[in-house]
Amino acid sequence: MGLFVSNIALADAQKPASEQDGKYFDAEGNPTYNVQPDGTVDWYTYSGFRRYHSDCHVCHGPDGQGSTYAPALANSLKTMDYNTFVSTVVQGRMNVGTGHENVMPAFGTNKNVMCYIDDIYVYLKARADDAVGRGRPAKHADKPAAAREAEASCLGE
């Protein structure tokens, strides 16, 4: 059972196995979220919320809930692993079925997505695990220096 604090569901979800410069990782070394008992999310989860809503929500709906146009990523990440997520975002995907076709465009050259791919993943993973609720996280950790440096390097600043 999750504990609800200010609209954030603190699930009995996985806890990070490790941390480096404010970025959290699961036991397999994949990026993951960290939600404190008071509902404070790590910087990367908060950044992922912001980046998701700037580039992904138009098709996949607010908070990863899906739309008539694209699937609910908050559901997809219950079973989709990190490598499949990254591959799909980078390369895109086309599904053609009986009378139904949907296309996920490739974002591999879009720096506004690729520079924050891990952030988007951890936000959606937190949504999939019910570790964060809908809407902007009310509290978040400060932006680590390592995040500033990675962002500047990736964006060519």
UniProtKB/TrEMBL annotation:
Residue ranges, compositional bias (Basic and acidic residues): 133-151
Keyword Iron: yes
Disordered: region residues: 133-157
Gene3D superfamilies tied to this protein: Cytochrome c-like domain
Alphabetized UniProt keyword annotations: Heme, Iron, Metal-binding
Signal peptide per UniProt: none
Domain Cytochrome c intervals: 47-124
Keyword Metal-binding among record annotations: yes
InterPro entries: C-typ_cyt_methanol_metab-rel (IPR022411), Cyt_c-like_dom (IPR009056), Cyt_c-like_dom_sf (IPR036909)
Single GO MF descriptor: heme binding
Protein name: C-type cytochrome, methanol metabolism-related
Source species: Segnochrobactrum spirostomi
